[in-house]
Amino acid sequence: MSLSSPTGALTTRELIARYDAHAPRYTSYPTAAQFTPAVGAADWGAWLGAAPLDRAASLYLHIPFCKRLCWYCGCNTRAMNRVGVMSSYVDLLLKEADLVLERIGRPVRVGSIHLGGGTPNMLPPEELERLFAGLAARFDLGDCFEIAAELDPEVLTQGWVEAAGRIGLSRASLGVQDLSPKVQAAVNRPESFETIRWAAEALRGQGVTSLNLDLMYGLPLQGAEHVVTTVAQIAVLRPERIALFGYAHVPWMKPHQKLIKEADLPGPEERFTQSQAAARYLVQKGWQAIGLDHFALPHDSMAAAVRAGRLHRNFQGYTTDEAPVLIGLGASSISRTPQGFVQNHAQERDWRADVSAGTLPVARGVALNPRDAFVGEIIERLMCDFTVDVAEIARMRGRDLAEVAAVWPRLQRFQLDGLIEVNGTTVTVTDLGRPFVRAVCAAFDPGAADIEKRHARVV
């Protein structure tokens, strides 16, 4: 496949060669790679005390357990099936909630709860219900409009689905990745379509109204035909949302990825072909392209958020969540208030030790200054809407355009290559430029060059 820029100057191969650098995924700004130990538990405690809670907060709970370790995984998790370990983890999640609420010092309304991992459905059904009974005893869940969980279909049981129905699970994300047995074997994730179909039908039968399926491209031994075949199979299930992520090969950060043979990985041109072929298929079948790597049926709340210009981006990816406060519980969880971001200890033993000792288990973070908030909103709008009026954001935030004066010369090459259009202070990413939007965002990020090697490649 060979696309060319409007001037015919560059082919797809040339664009990839020019722009396929390492860049953040911009699920936050500043990015998690810029968090430091200089921000710790004392800061988080102070921010909690000053948190704006006139609107409902969001809760994120990290469950770092899996049945097996998938070799492509970039998450903070481990293989674990001992009920006692998981039960004590639930005890400490609730104790961490108590520590947070002590610092807040007033009732907290919660609008949404997200269980991530790892594999949240590794928790036995009785532990899931005990966890939610504990949350309901601590937080005001009367206005909670969404309870979501990331699930492994291979581990899902009828008992867990029924327990999920009792706690009010409304949105579920099923990990699929690829349905080719050859590709599954190369990443240690066996899974059948029938298992996924059963999971989807069982969850919908228990009240789940929004179903998301996670797919991946760029996996070892994967070709465009595997990606499109997988997409065609799961399209039959009509999930409200589909996420199509590019595999991030970062073995220097995730040593288990060394089990993947680099010679088996598709190159950047093949990855590009895979992602575009899948995107075309999904759009033809009725899904709307959302941001960089998500798709939603037109009736879904995410598609509605795009139409209203209210799509957001956080550590779970694209989201409709507009809560100003995100409280993360569990090992490696990230929290946010208007004052900044904090992340808990990634090592479960360190998290357990701090919580057991009555200490907020914060390992690192970053305080937000007004300039960070200004740049962060520019980047978020580019990632979500592919267009931003920089002057309008500056006006709303009381900032000076001179703060981003250095950006305009850096954007010239994107404009010349047809990846963006600049009209005054409005920057719009073209259809040609959308696969490279992270590179465009990095032009606004003064710290991008310093942390480049800590991120996956753009394509």
The CATH superfamily of the largest domain is tm_1862 like domain
Q: Would you state the CATH class of the largest domain?
A: Alpha Beta
Question: Which percent band covers the strand fraction?
Answer: 15-25%
Low-confidence stretches: 1-8
Distance between termini? 15 Å
What is the general shape?
globular
The CATH architecture of the largest domain comes to: Alpha-Beta Horseshoe
| Largest sheet, spatial ordering of strands | 9-10-8-7-6-5-4-1-13
The domain count comes to 2
CATH level 3 topology of the largest domain: pyruvate-formate lyase- activating enzyme
Percent helix? 25-40%
Number of strands: 19
> What class would the helix/strand composition place it in?
alpha/beta
Mean pLDDT: 94
Cα Rg: 22 Å
Characterize the largest beta sheet: strand count, sense, and whether it forms a barrel: 9 strands, mixed
Number of helices: 15
Tell me what you see in this structure.
With 459 residues, the chain is an alpha/beta fold. The chain folds into 2 domains: 1-27 and 370-459, Orthogonal Bundle (Arc Repressor Mutant, subunit A); 32-329, Alpha-Beta Horseshoe (pyruvate-formate lyase- activating enzyme), CATH 3.80.30.20. Helix content is 37%, strand content 19%. Helix 12 (370-385) runs antiparallel to helix 13 and helix 12 packs antiparallel against helix 15 (437-444). The radius of gyration is 22 Å and the shape is globular. Residues 1-8 have low confidence and may be disordered.
List keywords for this structure.
15 helices, Arc Repressor Mutant, subunit A, 4 iron, 4 sulfur cluster binding, 2 domains, nine-stranded mixed β-sheet, alpha/beta, pyruvate-formate lyase- activating enzyme, globular, 459 residues, 19% strand, S-adenosyl-L-methionine, iron-sulfur, metal-binding, three-stranded antiparallel β-sheet, 19 strands, disordered N terminus
